[in-house]
Write a structure and sequence with these properties.
Length: 168
Amino acid sequence: MTTHSAAAEAQQGPFLSSVMRIEPQWIDYNGHLNMAYYNVMFDRAIDELWLVLGIGPDYKKARGNSTFTAECHVRYLREIHLGDPVQVAVYLLGADEKRLHLFEELRHATEGWLSATSETMTLHIDMELRKTAPFPSDVRATIDAVARAHAQLPRPEGIGRSVSMPKR
């Protein structure tokens, strides 16, 4: 699939990652997926989306730019166990000249239930200067097209949540 056709497909709904399986070394002493590996799967899904948007490893090599995660909030909602197939849906909630706001849902790939969510803010980086920089116009056009399409989708529950104690 070309980047252009993949980007068009990403505009039809949230971006869906490939199906991943929980690996034995990821299971902790509680018998479920260790919290660190949720981030591994979210990160792998975002890397797949970056290929669609044209900002993956080849982009870094060719243009000297990349992305860094500036902030991340993960919610752990239901346990995942060894061998479970999972898939991540990624919503591009917003974008500007230097930032991408993403929301990811990790679901059991065959049963469909929600295991975890992650909301991230990603920065576009000039790797030579190691500072934020605007996206090139061609890349920005692809990002904006996907963001406009995703803005039309129903918003997943959990966007904008923060960590706090319940009010009494």
